[in-house]
């Protein structure tokens, strides 16, 4: 499978070999610049897609506007052959990290009819920690119930997810640079971010676009 390297200014193909505890509170305004104290860094990723199809059958990248297009049908095969029994997905799986605090940053546009998980903070050994779910009625939730946006279909909006890997660290979800929820991370271990479409039960075609995806690293204070 191809691994891609994405730099802050664009995409370059790399030759390499490569898939809640709630502390939820009321939304509060973010700082004037949410990325103050963060540094953008290049990163690698793979695209997970139905195993019997080519990547291009369910994923496109338009370099002219830095837009990634993901789609999948609920009836598609999972991303790995049996004995895997997960539902169908087309997702960008970013590189693993295990130290410090990182932030996923991207603009997202959800196509009508989509019912899918569109982003995740993932514990490499034990599965998703936080799942961002798009619903056909236009709501976007963390998990199945915490609404973080309404009227989300057919318009561009910004999603940021942070994950602090230290003991007692938090995951924070921002919508258009406003804090939408704070959740417990799981302490020191391997994590990664995902985005795209991971189909939900009773969905048909799920389709989403992401543009200007960035990965940020929290800069440690210097003496």
Structure description:
With 223 residues, this protein is an all-beta fold. The protein has a single domain, classed as Jelly Rolls (Sandwich), CATH 2.60.120. 0% of the residues lie in helices and 53% in strands. It has no helices and 19 strands. It has strands at residues 3-7, 10-14, 21-22, 28-29, 38-41, 43-48, 59-62, 67-73, 89-94, 101-110, 116-123, 127-134, 140-142, 146-149, 157-164, 170-175, 178-184, 191-199, 205-218. A hairpin with a 2-residue loop joins strand 1 (3-7) and strand 2. The protein is globular and about 50 Å long.
What layout of secondary structure does this protein have?
Layout: E1 3-7, E2 10-14, E3 21-22, E4 28-29, E5 38-41, E6 43-48, E7 59-62, E8 67-73, E9 89-94, E10 101-110, E11 116-123, E12 127-134, E13 140-142, E14 146-149, E15 157-164, E16 170-175, E17 178-184, E18 191-199, E19 205-218
Antiparallel strand pairs: 1-2, 1-6, 3-17, 4-17, 5-19, 6-9, 7-8, 8-19, 9-18, 10-15, 10-19, 11-12, 11-18, 12-13, 13-14, 15-16, 16-17
Q: What structural class do the secondary elements suggest?
A: mainly beta
How much strand?
over 45%
What share of the residues lie within helices? under 10%
Count the helices. How many? 0
Task: For this entry, give a set of tags.
mainly beta, Jelly Rolls, 19 strands
């Amino acid at each position: 499978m191809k691994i891609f390297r994405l730099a802050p200014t664009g995409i370059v193909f790399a030759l390499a070999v490569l898939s809640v505890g709630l502390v939820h509170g009321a939304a509060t305004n973010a700082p004037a610049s949410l990325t103050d104290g963060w540094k953008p860094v290049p990163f690698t990723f793979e695209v997970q897609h139905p195993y019997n199809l080519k990547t291009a059958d369910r994923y496109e990248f338009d370099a002219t506007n830095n837009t990634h297009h993901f789609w999948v049908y609920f009836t598609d095969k999972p991303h790995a052959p049996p004995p895997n029994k997960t539902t169908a997905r087309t997702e960008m799986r970013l590189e693993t990290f295990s130290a410090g605090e990182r932030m996923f940053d991207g603009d997202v546009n959800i196509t009508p009819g989509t019912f899918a998980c569109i982003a995740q903070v993932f514990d490499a050994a034990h599965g998703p920690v936080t799942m961002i779910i798009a619903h056909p009625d236009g709501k976007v939730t963390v998990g199945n119930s915490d609404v973080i946006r309404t009227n989300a279909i057919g318009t561009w909006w910004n999603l940021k997810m942070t994950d602090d890997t230290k003991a007692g660290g938090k995951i924070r979800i921002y919508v258009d640079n406003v804090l939408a929820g704070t959740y417990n991370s799981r302490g020191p271990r391997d994590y990664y971010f995902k985005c795209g479409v991971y189909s939900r039960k009773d969905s048909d075609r799920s389709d989403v676009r992401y543009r200007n995806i960035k990965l940020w690293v929290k800069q440690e204070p210097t003496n």
